[in-house]
Design goal:
Distance between the termini: 90 Å
Shape: globular
Helix content: over 70%
Number of helices: 25
Strand content: under 5%
Length: 471
């Protein structure tokens, strides 16, 4: 089997661990069909055992005895929730333990490259278990203390060990996500997520309604995998360090970095589309019906392709990329930091958490710091332009100015998104410093100087108020 996998990885020109990961994700589809026609709608205990067993076997195939790291995390987190669940102390203990274990994994296994090791599913389950601790805590609070989302996700009863195990090792999602709540999982197992019998299809010989949209998303995943392979063939990491790249003009270097960064994001998008397709094939992503009575399957959606590809603001990327992780952070970090009394402080704390959650590489911290200052500048500029009525009216009155402004916004966002991704992808300081030096750290200069420059910009854009002659 190992020789077959090795030969296949050479044939498709990809790393063996990456190929093993993709195959493991795809195994979720036959598992989904087996579950649908044998266990769906039946005993929850049998379903939990099935998902736990499948997930553990896939995990062992990928990481061998390192699977013990996730099982140890499972056992200790269960004990924390069993003894302390529903208290702030249980959340703190779960947060500290799972994050410490994850950082231990990063410290002992990390290299200068992007690693596909046991820490990959570990970072997924870290978020999943922290979110679970928050959900149990919210279940002990009164309804008046909870937000609308917290009311939907709160757990009135502590989950059992088997429920947590199946929730953690759910096939197709525990390796690279997506994140979903324990409430969604339990509703799915208990047959409460999809109430329409034609959608549930337990035991029917007909294909379930969830299968076609699930396979459609998986097909898109393969398409983006092809885009990634073709794109990285032309825009390689090595090219950014080459003399040919240095000979290009500054503008061309920035454009190349934009394409390079955009193509590298396809690596994540193809995996997310595959996992979303698997979760949809299970039926886990069901969110009801639209106004025309059509079933919606976006509960595990992790990327909105049209918004992502047409992005003309940095906020478009945030809203369309890694959606479930962003939503998890918004509910469990950003909103729970409201005691800081400032949205800026909450945003900074959220991005700091994300940087630590990714690991020790300095590139993560540089990337998320750039995201913080860029989002601050973008929000400030948009508010400034919205207040400038003359400029806004001028653009709206001229069709060619509307087109020109959209092109400029698209090119700007495309280029500087790639610029921000340089440290995230290259990870180590010598590598991303080399690339940033080749473009004179222009992005850093622009955004770090913005707080001072904005004073002059606002003074220039402010409309002159008419003098009051009666004064």
């Amino acid at each position: 089997m190992f020789n077959i996998l090795s030969n296949l990885s050479e044939l498709v020109n990809t790393r063996e661990d990456a190929l093993r990961l993709i195959i493991s994700i795809l195994l979720g589809l036959p598992i989904a069909l087996l579950h649908r026609y044998t266990l769906y709608g039946k005993s929850p205990v049998r379903q939990h055992l099935f998902f736990t067993t499948c997930g553990l076997l896939i995990c062992y195939w990928n990481y061998g005895l390192n699977t013990l790291h996730s099982t140890a995390t499972l056992c200790i987190t269960y004990l924390i929730l069993r003894l302390l669940g529903g208290t702030a102390l249980s959340v703190a203990a779960t947060f500290i333990f799972t994050m410490s274990y994850l950082l231990y994994g990063y410290y002992t296994t990390g290299t200068t490259d992007y690693d596909i090791k046991w820490t990959m599913p570990q970072c997924v389950l870290t978020m999943r278990l922290i979110g679970l601790a928050f959900n149990v805590l919210d279940g002990k609070k009164s309804e008046a203390q909870l937000s609308a989302t917290q009311k939907q996700l709160a757990l009135k009863q502590k989950p059992t060990f088997l429920e947590i195990a199946a929730f953690m090792y759910f096939p197709g999602s525990f390796l690279v996500g997506p994140q979903f709540s324990m409430k969604r999982y339990l509703d799915y197992i208990n047959g409460q997520l999809m109430n329409d019998k034609s959608e549930r299809g337990a035991g029917n010989v007909e294909l379930p309604d969830c299968l076609v949209p699930g396979i459609s998303r998986m097909c898109l995943g393969f398409l983006y995998m092809l885009f990634f392979k073709l794109g990285t063939h032309y825009f390689t990491d090595q090219y950014l360090f080459s003399l040919d790249f240095q000979k290009q003009t500054l503008l061309m270097r920035l454009v190349v970095i934009g394409f390079w960064g955009h193509v590298n994001l396809y690596k994540y998008i193809c995996c997310w589309l595959l996992t979303e397709g698997v979760c949809t094939s299970f039926g886990l992503s069901y969110t009801g019906k639209d106004e025309k009575g059509r079933s919606l399957w976006d509960g595990c959606e992790n990327v909105q392709l049209l918004t992502f590809e047409a992005a003309s603001q940095f906020n478009d990327y945030i809203l369309s990329f890694n959606i479930n992780t962003n939503q998890w952070c918004a509910e469990n970090i950003y909103k729970r930091l409201r005691f800081l009394g400032s949205k800026i402080y909450s945003q900074f704390g959220t991005l700091l958490f994300l940087a630590v959650w990714h690991g020790f590489h300095s590139g993560y911290y540089v990337c998320f710091f750039l995201e913080f200052i860029i989002m601050y500048a973008e929000k400030d500029i948009i508010e400034m332009l919205e207040r400038h009525k003359k400029l806004r009216n001028l653009i709206q009155a001229r069709f060619e100015l509307q087109i020109l402004s959209r092109i400029i916004a698209k090119v700007y966002t495309f280029v500087f998104m790639g610029y921000c991704l340089v440290p995230f992808i290259l990870l180590s300081y010598p590598r991303y410093h080399h690339v940033y030096s080749s473009v004179y750290y222009c992005g850093h200069v622009i955004y770090l100087s913005y707080p001072l420059a904005s004073i002059l910009i606002k003074r220039h854009l402010n409309e002159r108020r008419p003098r009051n002659l009666n004064r």
